[in-house]
Amino acid sequence: MTHTIRLNVNGKEHTVEVPSRRLLIDCLRYDLGLTGTKEGCSVGVCGACTVLMDGKPISSCLALALFADGKEIVTVEGLAREDRLDRVQQAFIDYGGFQCGICTPGMVVTAKALLDENPDPTVDEIKEWMMGNLCRCTGYYKIIESIQGATALEPGGE
Amino acid sequence: MSYGKIGQPLGRIEGPAKVTGEAKYTADVLLPGMIWGKVLRSPLPHAKIVSIDTQEAEQMPGILAVLTAKDLPDLLTGRLVYDMPVLAIDRVRFIGEKVAVVAAEDPDMAEDALASIDVEYEEMPAVFDAHEAMKSEAPLLHPDYRSYAHAPQKFFSDIPNVHSHVTWKLGDIDKGFALAKRVFEHTFNTPAVHQGYIEPHASVVAIDPDGRVNVWISNKMPVRARELLADVIEIPEERIVVHLAQIGADFGGKGSLMDAPLCYHLAKRTGRPVKMVMTYTEELMAGNPRHPTSIFLRTGVTEEGQIVARQAKVVFNSGAYAAFKPVPFVNIPGAKDAAGVYGTPHIRIDAYSVYANCVPSGHFRAPGDLQVNFAVESSMDMIAEDLGLDRLEFRKQNLLKDGDWVPGGPQLEEVRVAETLAAAVKASSWNQPKSQPNRGLGLAVSHRLIGTGEANTQLTLEEDGTIQVLTPVPEVGTGAHTILQQIVAETLFLSLDQVRVETASEIFKTDSGSGASRVTYVGGQVVQQAAGELMKLILAAGAKGLGCAENEVVFEGGRVVHSESDGSLSLAEVAKMGGDGKSALRVKKSLNLSEGPPMTTFTAQVVELEVDPETGQIRLLDVVTAHDVGTIINPLGHQGQIEGGLLQGVGFGLIEELRMEDGQVSTLNLGDYKLPNIRDIPPLTTVLVEEELGPAPFHGKAIGESSITPTGAAIANAVYDAVGVRFHDLPITAEKVYWALQQHSGGEG
Ligand code: FES
Ligand code: FES
């Protein structure tokens, strides 16, 4: 059985036909071609698939596409504006917040949501918030530095 | 010495692509008409395949092909020895082995079809433990292993299921033990652990109408992958193009073909591009984890506390196939470090790689080093205590010195282990009085020889005056491309934006790719040499253009300058003139270093931790990691290697285990197989003991596989110091500590 859903992704309206069991991650990656969002564990543990739904981070590997009907979704592709990176993205480059980069889309999306809610988080608050995002490359030290570094930058992007 | 580009803490050249989601990994490749492949895996550890009925699956909606071994050429594959079928032929040897493959319009349909394939098996006796597999009554997994292509004849063994037995010797082991006053014997075990890269293996194959095979694959050695694929799909290498995508980390685990041959066969059968992406569950049951290892050490020590003999027997559980081991002796190189960082005149190390009915093991960052270091450094503490010696003094007394040999390595020069150890101790609270009960300090030291191999590059002066650097080494996340850019820019006195690093695999015939801490050393040298040669060509062409002799021009401010006449040419102008008036200025270079430099790199770590006696929980209070380093080419990337490796070491020491029962992995998702998360990181102090004497360009050294190695042992030693319980097995989980403390205190409390 298929359904017609309407999604606002990164400010753009989309109407998509999806089967009931279509996951949001597959809808984004394959129906809309937005492959910036990554799939790692597929069970809600690694955070690579994190997107913002109405401003809140969710694991798109666990959500059905139907669940996002009528919602606003922001993916990693929606953080930068034209040529200007969001400050979180810029800080991840400057502070070495990634290596292989596979966790990075989920990391920067989650970190952006954190700074939207708490512009000046402590290290403990950063750890608490980012707990659901795994990174195997960096050991997280530089991810924390990146997020702290971002707070000192002008909010760019949007 | 001060440099312009070398030593800068530079962000990655591929940074903007990675933070915006533009960077394409293999799973992101979308092609018109692309379909999906999924495999059916064996539920049994050892069985004959009596029959496979695929009829029902073939009739299901959306199913385009169902293949079994009967549909494929009768060929085996592997990174070095070819011992593994693409789909099981007549027999399965581990739970998770591929038995059939389905192609469908979407992955859900493929998954549904797998459930209707009917396989009849006849179970065979299985063996799971490597020591059991070495007994005469054990079932043989590969009775014909000697006949496999590239099987290492020199290392064959008569012991059942041992497919490679390697021995390293120094001095005369019997003489060594004759000199010893005390002899100690210890045994340690470490489990299988997964590399934990967040990108599961993915492959895509698309066949052009003219028969050219296009491949995208999560593989760090694209040139080698093309060679291996050519053999197993019987297509000449020239007709295969490996397109390079980003790799969502490797850590040694991404060097095989994985599902690429299946993608090819499905693409050929259906005429459509085929993608296969492993789920993480498949990664955990059928990836290529670090070898479960048992290490037996026999150590001879004189009355004065001098180590005079070390015998080691290291048994690696290879799993059902040796196909994931890339080195020529098809064994695990880290075993050779079983004497640690201690100058030992008489050494004999035997490493056995043994088939058993478990997931095949592969390489994981510092393969074998972690396992063996855990054993060696734990035993150092145990021996010191037994002899009534201080564990630091006992180590100091035995450290390697200039002129000492290490097994499987060179006679060492510039040995800086004492300095490195001293730096770690100094930065820690080692010399302070013990602060509180249940707190302890542990120490461990390791070394790693710098990797050798083959590297290639092609440098071209482009018409716009920039330099294109082509490399067949994909970016696996270590920052290799940024480092190559820095080296070329430094050598040619250019700014970084004048140097572009691009990947290409098809113009190179062979290459070792990324791994074994070799990229900066071998890959760095080859681009440095090529850049030097390109500069000569640029000067020659410039002189010709300026109408003067080559020795009358210099390169200054990005221009070729004739000092006498003040005439000069920009690089773009030189490029337009070309070498002989028409062709581009270009240097293609290959470098094959089979012997490493007479130098190694040391790491010393001190861990301070606290054990909660109620729960067994271990809290890391402080970690100091000290490294013997040369010139650091990119401090940001260098520190990133240290931090990332260290946390993997913490995972190995405290958390990670691919749990198996009778060959069945029970930690089948990342919820059960725990990777360290952001709250597991300890306070970390890094000490760099710098000296500009590394063998890599600009006197750099390797760092990629350093910080991961001693952490497990340092933790185990600290736990002993804290609560007096010695663990011979990793990881040291809270549960294990809790039960050990219960026993230790005679069941009270
Ligand atoms: S892929 Fe969704 S949380 Fe890991
Ligand atoms: S950068 Fe590789 S997993 Fe985070």
Number of helices of chain A: 5
The description of the largest β-sheet of chain B is:
7 strands, mixed
Bound molecules: FE2/S2 (inorganic) cluster
Strand order of the largest sheet of chain B: 3-7-1-14-11-12-13
Distance between the termini of chain B: 61 Å
Radius of gyration of chain A: 15 Å
> Approximately how much helix is present in the residues of chain B?
25-40%
Secondary-structure element order of chain A, as H and E?
A: EEHEEEHHHH
Beta-strand share of residues of chain A = 15-25%
CATH topology of the largest domain in chain B: Aldehyde Oxidoreductase, domain 4
Number of domains of chain A: 2
- Structural category of chain B: alpha+beta
Write down the Rg of chain B. Answer: 27 Å
Outline of chain A, from the CA principal axes? globular
Average predicted confidence as pLDDT of chain B: 93
CATH superfamily of the largest domain in chain B: Aldehyde oxidase/xanthine dehydrogenase, molybdopterin binding domain
CATH superfamily of the largest domain in chain A: Beta-grasp domain
Structural class of chain A: alpha+beta
Envelope shape of chain B? globular
Strand content of chain B: 25-35%
Please outline the helices and strands.
The complex is a heterodimer of chains A (158) and B (749).
Chain A: E1 2-9, E2 12-19, H1 24-31, E3 50-53, E4 56-59, E5 72-74, H2 87-94, H3 104-117, H4 123-130, H5 141-151
Helix pairs in contact in A: 2-5
Chain B: H1 15-20, E1 35-41, E2 47-53, H2 55-59, E3 63-68, E4 76-77, E5 84-85, E6 91-92, E7 98-104, H3 107-114, E8 118-123, H4 130-133, E9 162-170, H5 173-179, E10 182-190, E11 202-207, E12 213-217, H6 222-233, E13 240-243, H7 260-270, E14 274-277, H8 280-286, E15 293-301, E16 307-319, E17 346-355, H9 369-387, H10 391-398, H11 417-427, E18 439-449, E19 453-461, E20 467-471, H12 480-492, E21 499-503, H13 519-546, E22 553-556, E23 559-562, E24 567-570, H14 571-577, E25 585-593, E26 600-611, E27 618-629, H15 635-655, E28 660-661, E29 664-665, E30 684-690, H16 711-723, H17 734-744
Helix pairs in contact in B: 9-16, 12-13, 13-14, 15-16
